Structure formats: structure tokens, C-alpha cells
Amino acid sequence: MRSVFKKSSQFILVLVLSIAWIFSGWPQIWNNPSFPPRTDIAYADSTTKTYSFPSDAESWSATACGAAGATCIWQTGDGSPANGSLEEPETRKNKGGTWTWQLSGITWESLGVPSGAIVTAVDGSYNHTMATCTDCDTTGSNTSGTLLIRDSGDTATVATLETAVSYTGAATWASRDASSAQSIGASYQASNTSIILRISGSIQTNNVNGAQAVIRQDEIALVITYTPPVPTFEQSAYRFFENANSTDVGAVLAAQDNAATLGSAGDAFRLRMLLHIATAELGLSGQDFKLQLATRSGTCDIGFSGETYADVTGATAIAYSTANTPNDGDNLTGNANDPTHSGHTIVNQDYEEANNFTNTVAAIPSGQDGKWDFSLIDNGAPASTAYCFRIRKSDDTDINTYTVIPEIITSSGIAPTLSFSISDNSVGFGTLDSEAARYATGDTTGSASETAAHTIAASTNATDGYVITVQGATLTYDGNTITAIGGTSAASSPGSEQFGLRITASGGDGAVTSPYNHASNYAYGATASVADEIASDANGDDVSTTYSLRYLGNISSLTEAGAYTATLTYVITAAF
């Protein structure tokens, strides 16, 4: 026994098209420069290293101690300002010679100088005493010691920090700080330079039984002056966005580090850029920058070949826009689509409507990136013209490295178009039979032979063409359904429930999407809640493509009788 259906399935075609323009204000006429202008920061810093010897010799070692047999020691019973000092004793008559203490295997960095800094000068001092002078020489052979810096190979003196004091007898503790800071030669200025610290003097007793001499040093101090390491800057990443009247941005205009094209003349847009900081931290408001643009010559290359850059102002072809509610310098609001750089931490900075700009929100540690948000507008620029952007220091010097160069292309000046039409929005199968396939027709009576039920025509001048989708449940009656074929095409199979769609295309560059493009099989992968792509055109040449749609209906002998219908919604989306 076969089931007979008195009414065919109807299809209602709904077209959805949405094109939006965002008005973002009139072009700027002029914009005052920031006042007063900030200047680059250059400064010196210093660190102090002191050896007080409270519990040991702090890695200083005696390499000579006067006459053979004498032993220089660290002693705990005396010192200045507290107990603990280096000592050169001689308790034998008519003995003496040169004594030397030194500290090897050190660098400026181990003495407290930041990595990457340049050491320019060192001022040294120490405390000293001749604790004992019993029949000791008083004619200049007992000295407090010369404090100096030697190169790591001990072949040259880098700087003599303090000269020695000659004793004329026993003396109480005193400070030796007679010399000013000593310059450090260029060969020894790098923070990782290895050096030797040395203090060396002489000791001598007279040729008298019971003669003794004891000299001590304490509180050896170095004040090291250096130029802090200078941050380096890399223009590391960018992304273009639609404008939004806030410190956030609108929809993305292009993938990260890719050129973007404006949709219309006079469009406002946003450019978010990253600067990677290396070598040293960029302190708060540590460097003034400015944004520049140039008409592209060939490509927006990192060597600026053929381009002439100029500062972006309120009057340039691509200008700063002040039409938004936020003020220049307000803190930007992060966005999930913001540019990133090699997994580095991003330190958000400011929303910018004018040059100059700096990092007013927070310092940027070395190895991290600062992010700025530039509010820009097509200010009467020629159609279909490409512009390049770069960040430069406010003193008109380049930053260290340009890895990417943002590029924006103005609109072609042609109004966006999207055309979408259907020949018939109500089609039907007529009466379905479990022994033979049925094909929908525009007059709703159906056909036993395959035929196109209706056509859809589509075209656009959108840069990246269009996509057409279908959405809707399969044939349904009173809770009963005819099974949709699904996302894999299949041949017609009378006696089995099947609802499917097959499409062909003619004219233009449009193409049917698999599985709907099969030469004879049918498919239907959409549902009431899920759309399925059926066709696309990647070329926005505004040439129309006609799509012929064929619908297949098959039932089984067990399919419940009734008037089955389906509402299918076709949507075209253009990528301007």
C-alpha cells in the first residue's frame, strides 16, 4: 500500500541584506601641537658598593704581604666604623716590602650596575690606620695603600681611585677620599666588563729587636657613575579597525599585519600599533613619539624606499580625527582582536588624536610591548590610494627597528552594491509517491522529471565577493518530518525518505558550494538553527550569476500522510 500526499511542500524564500555606514564626524581642519613638547630623556645614575668586612674578607685575597714569611689577614678586633678589617702585620725587625689585597672575577654588573649600562666614572675611598708602629720606618716606607682598578688580565690600570698616605708613626683611623671621580675609558665601560679591584701599599720595620708594624684598611667604597641602558624600539605589529565612538574599537578591517581598504570616502577608522621594548625598561613617559604617513611607492617597505613621510596632523590626507567622545590621551580599552607580538606581554597605553604621544599609562619593561590606539580619518584623500604609517621619535629620528609597516587603502569611490533576487518564492512537489521520485516546480504541482523549481541571481562589487547560505528545517507536518539527506550528497532513492537540494550556476564568477554542486546527487545539510553555505563568489566584479535550484522529494511506504511544508531562508552576505 502506498501513501498519497494531497499537498506538496511549499518553500518560502527570505532574503536578508544589511549594509551599514557609520558616520564619524566631519574632517578635521587643523589641530594644535601638544604644548609644551616633551624632549628625550638622557641622564646618569650611580650605584655604591662598599666592603666593610664585618665577618670575613668578602672574597678579597692577599697576593703579597711585605717580606717573605709575613701573612696578611682579616681580623675582627678593630675596624672603622665597625670591627672587621684587612690587616698587614710585620713583627720582625728590618723586614718589609709591598703588600697587596685584590678582588678578582668581578664585573661592573656584579658591583650593582644594570645590565646594558655604560660606566663613565668611579670615585673610590677607604678608611685606614697604622695600628702599630714600634721601631717602624717613618720615612715613607709604610703606606696606607693605593686603591685602583685593573683590567681582567692584570696588564693595565683602568683607573687609580686613591693614592696612598705615608705614615710617620702610629695613626688612628682616618678616611682616604682625596681624589675626585676618575673617568673610565671606552674599552672598559660596558656593564659586563671584567675587572680587578686592588689596594696595594708598603710596610717596613727598622733593624731593632722588637720592631713591629701593623697597617689596616676598612670600608672600601666605590661610587660608580653610569649611563643607564637605553631602551630600543621595534615597530612590531598592527591592526586596522572600524571606528567606534569610545576608547574601544569597532569591527576588524583586516587580519593582523595586513593592509586594509576603507569602504567609503571619508571613512573614520582606527589603527592599533605595538612597539616592542628591548635592552631596558621604558620608564613612565620615557620617550616622546609621533605618527607619520607617506603615500605608498611600490610597497610599504621597512626601508621606506621611494616614500616621503610626514607627520600626521588634523589636515593631512589621512588625518587625526577628533570627532569621537574620548579625549586625546585617554587610556585605551583593550579588545580581543588587538594585535599581538610573539606571546609578549602587552602594556596598554593611550587613545591618540594628535601627535606627540608617549607611555603615560605605565612603564613598559624590557621584553614587552606597548600598545597605542590612533583615531584616523580619510580627510579628502584620493580614491584607491595607499598610505603607509610609521612611528618615529619626536626629535625626527627613526626608532631602532621597523618589522611591519601599516598600510591603508582609500575607497575606490564606487558605491557598494549587492544584488539578490529570486524568480519564485513558492514552489511545490504536488503529490508524493513512495514508488517514484518527485521534483518541485514553480507552479507547486511538481514533476516526475528533474527540473529547476526557481532561480536566484546574485552580484556585488564587494572586494571579497559574497557568500549565500540556506537555513530551515526539512519538510514537516504535525510533528512528522521527511528526512533530509544531510551534508553528504546522495542519489535519489524512491521508497526512502529524502529531502534534498541540487544547484547549478551560470554566468559571472559565482560557484556552487559542495555538496550542492554534484552532477546528479542531492544534499541538504541545513537545519532550523544552522545555516549551510550553498554558493559563493570571491570576485566582486558586479557581474551577476544565476543559480538554478532543484528540489528532490522521496517518501517511504510508512511516511505519515499530510500536507508537508518547509520554510527555507536564503541569505547573501557581501564582504566589502
Model description:
There is one protein chain. The chain is mainly beta and 576 residues long. The chain has 3 domains: 13-19 and 417-574, no CATH class; 45-227, Jelly Rolls; 232-409, no CATH class. The protein has no helices and 37 strands. The chain has strands at 13-16, 45-51, 61-65, 73-75, 85-90, 96-107, 118-134, 146-151, 157-162, 171-176, 182-183, 194-204, 212-227, 232-242, 260-261, 268-278, 289-295, 310-311, 318-320, 346-352, 369-378, 386-393, 401-402, 407-409, 418-422, 438-439, 454-460, 466-471, 476-477, 480-481, 486-490, 498-506, 511-512, 522-524, 532-537, 545-554, 568-574. The strands form 8 sheets. Strands 2, 4, 5, 7, 10, 11 and 13 form a 7-stranded antiparallel β-sheet that branches. Strands 14, 16, 19, 20, 21 and 23 form a 6-stranded mixed β-sheet that branches. A hairpin with a 2-residue loop joins strand 29 and strand 30 (480-481). Residues 1-42 have low confidence and may be disordered.
**Shape summary:** elongated
End-to-end CA span: 56 Å
Query: Largest sheet, described in full?
Result: 7 strands, antiparallel
Q: Which percent band covers the strand fraction?
A: 35-45%
- Rg (C-alpha, Å): 42 Å
CATH class of the largest domain: Mainly Beta
User: CATH homologous superfamily of the largest domain - what is it?
Assistant: Galactose-binding domain-like
The number of domains is 3
- Return the CATH architecture of the largest domain: Sandwich
Tell me the number of strands: 37
Any low-confidence stretches, pLDDT <50, length ≥5? 1-42
Secondary structure: helix percent: under 10%
The third-level CATH topology of the largest domain is Jelly Rolls
Mean pLDDT: 92
Figure out the total of helices.
0
Structural class: mainly beta
